[in-house]
Each structure stands twice: as structure tokens, then as C-alpha cells.
Design goal:
Layout lengths: L1 H7 L2 H13 L13 E3 L2 E3 L3 E3 L10 H6 L4 E7 L12 E4 L4 E4 L8 H14 L5 E6 L8 H12 L5 E5 L14 H17 L6 E5 L5 H13 L4 E4 L20 E4 L3 H15 L4 E5 L5 H9 L4 E4 L1 H6 L3 H16 L14 H15 L6
Parallel strand pairs: 3-4, 3-13, 4-7, 7-8, 8-9, 9-10, 10-12, 12-13
Antiparallel strand pairs: 1-2, 5-6, 6-11
Helix pairs in contact: 1-2, 5-6, 7-8, 9-12, 11-12
């Protein structure tokens, strides 16, 4: 019933109703699947995390974990509250299994999120992993200072930090992926951690539209600066091979199925270049067990999704986790680490994943 109502609502209204329902305890509950992976000195109970952008302000954390996610990344959170870009700013492309959004870091601000998360921490299990995705305010005069402030105000409540410098919806933000700016941002976040007397893994979220040279330069900086890992990828500005003509010209980042190949190829390139020196979180277009396994074969230690939660429903994380657990048995492996990065070709990884799913899982998991 609720699913039908959500589909009838505009994109942003549907998003808000979903978060509100989860915050009020209106959600299915799945037993957590144990398929542990360790990265960045953290033990993730299963490899499917909820990407930033869904629970932007930490309003529905318990509900998100109840859906079977092994980790939940809150944000993007900015130091000061801001409304984001003008509405409408979310557009469905149902023929493509995709969305275009130009939210623009709409955020309650770090103080409100800190209060909310502090209350949640006092009442809930400490072994549930929370990531904090931080960004700069739109009108800030000093983006580097904003990352320092957000880290200082929020790091103590998170298990890991994600530096978001790759959203296409904040003017000038993607420029921070360039080597000189990236070093400054990392330094500011590290200084904030020192001032707060904290040690936290740091991840950096990159965009899928980076050319190979800029991608490798960013990864090299991360390795040299001791960053735990890269999240690949954010949304894309590409509009290649879309069937929906109504919204194709809308400005903003494209997510969902059309992002899958692009983000997976960028993941593979980065994984090969990094030579095991950092970890990778694979994001972009994951909507099935086959998709998830493909990204793992290309180098993802763990995964995140968001669009498929909206498109396929609340069962998606549990569904993929069960499928991956069954694949481990069928493939004769003890854990997914054994096959992480075992392919360096998207097409070959996808073919192997498709074969494995057909060989070891019933049609429910195709």
C-alpha cells in the first residue's frame, strides 16, 4: 500500500515520506546477515551499506539498520544549515531505472545532526557502523575550513568519515579533487581529528567523470596521506544511452542503473592503480546480487546503494546479502575477500558474476 503511494508522489516528497516512515518505526525488519569484512580497522558485519544521500540528517538510523544494511552513511552534512538548491530537484527516469537529483547539500547542519546522533548513540548498539559524510556550505568563503569544522563537530559520533568533494550540485566542489586542493582538505580533516583527540578512518568519495590521469592523481594522494579508502563513485553528469526523454536535460547528478558500468570501470582502474594500498567502497547502480558480485570482483571491499532502495523496495539490502552469502558457498570461498579484485575487465567480471548467480542461486536472485 505504502509502496504504491510513494510511487505516485513526486521524487523528493516520496523520499521525505520514506525517511519519516523509517524514523517512526514503520518498516519491515530483517535479521542481519553476517558476512563480515574488515577495512579501515573497522569490521563491517556485511558488505551492503546505505549510501549517503538517503538519511541526510540522521533521522531514521534504526529503521535503516533494520532493513539489513551493514553500515549507514549519514549526510552529506554541512557545518551550517542550508536549504540546498531550488525545487523541484529530484527527477525519476523509470525507463532507465534512474534518478537525476540536484539537491545541493540540503542539510540541517552539523549541530542539529550531532544532537540527533548523540541521542541515538545513547540508546542503541555501539557495533552498528555509522559513517559521516561531510561537505562544505554553498556560500562558504573557505571550503577547507568547512571540512575542518564539520569533522571537528561530528567525528566523535561516527565510526568513519567520508569527505565528499565529488557532488556535481555544489559549484566548484569537484575542483577539490585536484591534487593541490585535495591535500589541503585532507590536512584540515586530519588537524580536526588531532584537535578532537580522535583516530577515525577517512574515506574520500570521488566522481565517475574524472579522467584517468586525475583519478590516479587523487588515488596517489590518498595513498601518500594514509587515507583508508576511496568511495567510487558519486553521481555522473553523463547522459549517455538514456531512454527517458522527459528529464534527460535536467541538471544534476544521474544515479541508478545507467551509472553501473561507468562507476564499475572507474573502480577497477583505481583498484589496479592502488595495488592494495587502500580499500575501496563500490557505489553506483547496484540493484541485484549480480551487480554486487561484479563490483567485488573488480575490487570493491564493501558496497553501498541508494537508488535501488527507492526503485526496488526495502528488501533490497537483505536480498543481496543473502545472495552473496549463498554465492560464497556455491563458489567455494570462505569470504568475499578471496575474490575481491580477481578480474580487471568489467565485461569478464560481469560474465563471471552472471554465470555464478545462475549456477548457484535460484531465479529469485537473478
Amino acid at each position: 500500500m505504502l509502496a504504491n503511494v510513494l510511487k505516485a508522489l513526486p521524487g523528493e516528497a516520496s523520499h521525505k515520506v520514506t525517511v519519516a516512515a523509517l524514523s517512526k518505526g514503520i518498516y519491515p525488519r530483517y535479521s542481519p546477515i553476517q558476512l563480515p569484512t574488515e577495512i579501515g580497522a573497522l569490521r563491517f558485519p556485511n558488505p551492503i551499506g546505505l549510501a549517503a544521500g538517503f538519511d541526510k540528517n540522521g533521522e531514521a538510523i534504526s529503521g535503516c539498520f533494520a532493513l539489513g544494511f551493514g553500515s549507514v552513511e549519514i549526510g552529506t552534512v554541512t557545518p551550517l544549515p542550508q536549504p540546498g538548491n531550488p525545487k523541484p530537484r529530484v527527477f525519476r527516469l523509470p525507463e532507465d531505472g534512474a534518478f537525476i537529483n540536484r539537491y545541493g547539500f540540503n542539510s540541517d547542519g552539523m549541530e542539529a545532526v550531532a544532537v540527533r546522533l548523540s541521542k541515538w548513540r545513547k540508546c542503541n548498539k555501539t557495533d552498528q557502523l555509522i559513517g559521516m559524510n561531510i561537505g562544505a556550505n554553498n556560500i562558504t568563503e573557505n571550503k577547507v575550513e568547512d571540512y575542518f569544522s564539520a569533522c571537528l563537530g561530528l567525528a566523535g559520533l561516527a565510526d568513519y568519515l567520508t569527505i565528499n568533494i565529488s557532488s556535481p550540485n555544489t559549484i566548484g566542489l569537484r575542483d577539490l579533487q585536484k591534487t593541490s586542493f585535495l591535500k589541503q582538505i585532507i590536512k584540515s580533516v586530519k588537524l580536526a581529528l588531532v584537535e578532537a583527540n580522535l583516530v577515525k578512518p577517512i574515506f574520500i568519495k570521488l566522481d565517475p567523470d574524472l579522467n584517468k590521469l586525475d583519478l590516479f592523481s587523487a588515488i596517489e594522494v590518498m595513498i601518500n596521506e594514509g587515507i583508508a579508502g576511496a568511495i567510487i563513485s558519486n553521481t555522473t553528469l553523463s547522459r549517455n544511452n538514456l531512454n527517458n526523454r522527459k528529464n534527460i536535460k535536467q541538471a544534476g547528478g544521474l544515479s541508478g542503473v545507467p551509472l553501473f558500468r561507468l562507476s564499475s570501470e572507474k573502480l577497477s582502474e583505481a583498484y589496479i592503480f592502488a595495488e592494495g594500498h587502500i580499500s575501496f567502497i563500490g557505489v553506483g547502480g547496484i540493484s541485484s546480487v549480480k551487480d554486487a558480485y561484479t563490483k567485488i570482483l573488480l575490487g570493491a571491499d564493501i558496497l553501498q546503494l541508494y537508488s535501488s532502495l527507492a526503485l526496488k523496495g526495502p528488501h533490497i539490502a537483505n536480498h543481496i546479502n543473502i545472495g552473496l552469502a549463498k554465492l560464497c558457498v556455491g563458489e567455494g570461498i570462505n569470504n568475499l575477500k578471496e575474490v575481491c579484485g580477481s578480474f580487471n575487465s568489467f565485461s569478464k567480471a560481469q560474465r563471471h558474476s552472471e554465470h555464478a548467480v545462475k549456477a548457484h542461486l535460484n531465479k529469485l536472485y537473478y
